[in-house]
Design goal:
Blueprint lengths: L1 H16 L7 E6 L7 H18 L3 E6 L10 H7 L4 E3 L9 H5 L9 H14 L1 H8 L3 E7 L3 E5 L14 E4 L4 H7 L3 E4 L5 H6 L5 E5 H7 L7 E6 L5 E6 L1 H7 L2 H11 L2 H22 L3 E4 L2 H25 L5 H13 L3
Parallel strand pairs: 1-2, 1-3, 6-7, 6-8, 9-11
Antiparallel strand pairs: 3-10, 4-10, 5-8, 5-9
Helix pairs in contact: 2-11, 2-12, 5-6
């Protein structure tokens, strides 16, 4: 009995002396885009997989696509509260982030690469803009929104006059301002319903970023698609919940997260730029004619958008508590104009 007791004691001691293996830190990330869009495969999927690879299994990032965890419009608040650990988001409430909202002025960027460089300057040089971005979580990286495109079932679009009176589907309520500025009737619809909605006559046209239009596959029956250029200068931030980052991660995990994420926005941008060219080819192969506007035609869209949307930006920013929105609007324009 004494020998058995000694053996039992030794076994119990060995059990408690064995090293404890902590479970890996598992995180959920929601992409801005649907599974068909190549930004996921080119940039976000390899980035998410790199956490487990580079941490030796200590960190795991699960990637979900738009709507996979929460509705896209709820994603910023979900990241902030920790319902979603991290994500790529867009500004959805100007009252909560008025300075970020003001930076989305129409047609102040030359192209997407220019928008990427300018938005990085906004973050580094305008404290109010930085505060709005950081209000959602720890900012990991950021990319630029895509050029707008409007796909049309039957009407070639060369000017706002071609949109006037037409029902135009969009997946984001703020796009409705552009549609109204160009004389159309905005119809907000869920991303997954665009194909069927346009196919079955809920609208005659669809407005979104070029990659979004291609990803929705409406070019399979739309005869025309017009590249509307950099109608918006909005940022695509990638952020992680602040409490998770600052309290739940070790120093090594925080360092690795920032190291893996520092070039994420640039990789997404590079994918965007390649995707635009591939989108043209894919859409044309399906029989959809791509219309690229000349300078005079683009100027018509820019003027109509600025005439209507600049005042609404100023009014909303004042409602949100910005005492001098015109000053910030001009600051953003000046930074854009001074950036190569």
């Amino acid at each position: 009995m004494k020998i058995k007791s000694i053996i039992s004691a030794l076994a119990l001691g060995a059990l408690f002396a064995a090293p404890a293996y902590a479970a890996p830190l598992e995180m959920n990330f929601q992409s801005t885009w649907n599974p068909a869009q190549r930004q996921n495969a080119d940039a976000l999927e390899p980035w998410a997989k790199s956490f487990e690879e580079k941490s030796g299994g200590d960190m795991i990032m699960h990637l979900f696509y738009t709507g996979g965890l929460v509705d896209a419009s709820a994603l910023p608040d979900a990241i902030k509260s920790g319902i979603v650990d991290a994500g790529g988001w867009t500004m959805t409430d100007y009252k909560k982030q008025p300075y970020l909202y003001l930076a989305g002025l129409p047609y102040i960027m030359k192209d997407q690469a220019h928008s990427y460089r300018v938005n990085n300057r906004f973050y580094n040089e305008v404290p109010e803009y930085k505060k709005d971005v950081d209000s959602i979580g720890v900012f990991l990286s950021g990319s630029a929104s895509a050029p707008f495109m409007i796909a049309s079932r039957d009407t070639p679009i060369h000017s706002p006059a071609d949109i006037k009176g037409k029902r135009v589907l969009s997946t984001f309520q703020l796009f409705g301002e552009y549609i109204e500025a160009w004389g159309g009737i905005p119809v907000t619809i869920a991303p997954g319903d665009v194909y069927v909605g346009l196919q079955r006559g809920m609208g005659e046209m669809f407005l979104c970023g070029i990659s979004c239009v291609k990803g929705s596959r409406v070019h399979e029956f739309c005869k025309y698609a017009t590249d509307l250029g950099m109608a918006s200068s909005g940022l695509f931030p990638y952020s992680i919940n602040r409490e998770l980052f600052e309290k739940d991660m070790t120093d090594e995990q925080r360092k690795l997260t920032m190291e893996l994420s520092k070039d994420l926005g640039k990789k997404v941008l590079d994918s965007f730029l390649a995707d635009v060219q591939n989108a043209y080819a894919e859409m044309e192969a399906a029989g959809c004619k791509i219309i690229k506007l000349n300078d005079d035609e683009m100027a018509q869209f820019a003027k109509a958008a600025q005439d209507k949307i600049f005042p609404s930006f100023e009014r909303r920013a004042k409602e949100a508590g910005v005492p001098n929105p015109r000053e910030f609007m001009q600051k953003y324009i000046d930074i854009a104009n001074s950036t190569d």
